[in-house]
Write a structure and sequence with these properties.
Blueprint (H helix, E strand, L loop, with lengths): L10 E7 L5 E6 L12 E8 L2 E8 L4 E4 L7 E10 L2 E2 L6 E4 L3
Antiparallel strand pairs: 1-2, 2-5, 3-4, 3-6, 6-7, 6-8
C-alpha cells in the first residue's frame, strides 16, 4: 500500500465550553478508505482574532480539552489528521465562546 497524507479531513462533532478557560473538542476519525496509511496524530487548531494556536494529540484519542483560553472570548476550532507522510485537509470549523 502506498502511504501518503489522508485525503479527507476528520469530522469535528462537538465543541463544548467547560468553563471560562477550557473547551472540549471531539471529532470522528478519517474514514479508513481515505486514511492512506496509519494516522499518527490529530492537530487541533484554535483561532481568536487572526491568532491561531495548535494542540497535537495522539492518534488513539478522538477528543481533547484545550486549556488556557481567554475568558469571554470566541474561538474557532478545526481539526486535522496526519500520517508520517503529511496532513489531511482541515475540518470545517465550529465556534465556541468561553464563559466570563
Amino acid at each position: 500500500m502506498h502511504i501518503s497524507e489522508p485525503s479527507k479531513a476528520p469530522v469535528l462533532t462537538l465543541v463544548k465550553v467547560l468553563n471560562s478557560t477550557s473547551v472540549e473538542v471531539e471529532w470522528q476519525p478519517v474514514p479508513e478508505e481515505f486514511r492512506n496509511g496509519i494516522i499518527t496524530k490529530y492537530v487541533i487548531f484554535y483561532t481568536i482574532e487572526k491568532e491561531t494556536s495548535t494542540k497535537e494529540v495522539n492518534a488513539s484519542l478522538l477528543k481533547t480539552v484545550v486549556n488556557g483560553l481567554r475568558q469571554s472570548a470566541t474561538y474557532s476550532f478545526r481539526v486535522q489528521a496526519a500520517t508520517v507522510e503529511g496532513a489531511s485537509p482541515v475540518s470545517s470549523f465550529q465556534n465556541a465562546t468561553t464563559k466570563g
